Amino acid sequence: MLTISTPIGRITANIDLFEEDGRWRGTASGTGEEVELTDLVRDGNRLTWRQAVNRPLRLNLAFDVTVDGDVLAGTSKAGRLPPSKVAGRRRR
Fold first, then answer.
1. Phi/psi class of residue 70: alpha, beta or left (left: φ > 0; alpha: ψ in -120 to 50)?
2. 14: closest CA among 43, 78, 32?
3. CB within 8 Å of 80: residues ≥ 6 apart
4. What is the model's pLDDT at position 79?
5. Percent of the chain scored above 70 by pLDDT?
6. Cα separations (Å) of 90 from 8, 55, 79, 82?
7. I need a surface site. Which of 9, 13, 28, 47 has the fewest CB within 10 A?
8. pLDDT in tens, 36-79
9. What is the mean pLDDT of the chain?
10. What CA–CA distances, in Å, run from 49 to 3, 30, 38?
11. What is the C-alpha separation between 37 and 68, in angstroms, rounded?
12. How far is it, in rounded angstroms, from Cα 82 to Cα 92?
């Protein structure tokens, strides 16, 4: 579960990440839609990706997070808007 603290309130999403043929892939679901994560890169404990969403607003988001065990923390940026804090915890 991932929580993004945005200027319009908190948004939660489920992020599914998996490695397939040596390449990282993923999807995000929440607010009634499921989107593919693009440009997903894992570099040590750092993850970056992009995703486009239509709800609650149409935005292109860029994520930059660090994973420490089961905890994820970092930022999400939408265009010229200031970065939003991101926090999450792995579900097993």
1. alpha
2. 32
3. none
4. 86
5. 100
6. 25, 24, 27, 26
7. 9
8. 999 999 999 999 999 998 877 788 999 999 999 999 999 999 98
9. 91
10. 16, 17, 6
11. 21
12. 32
pLDDT at 74: 98
Six token digits for residue 40: 């997903």
Quote the DSSP letter at residue 55. Answer: S
35-57 core/surface letters (b: 16 or more CB in 10 A; e: else): bebeebeeeeeebebebebeeee
pTM over 0.85, yes/no: yes
Q: How many residues does the chain have?
A: 92
Q: Point out which residues pair with 28 in neighbouring strands.
A: 15, 35
**Structure tokens belonging to residue 29:** 């679901």
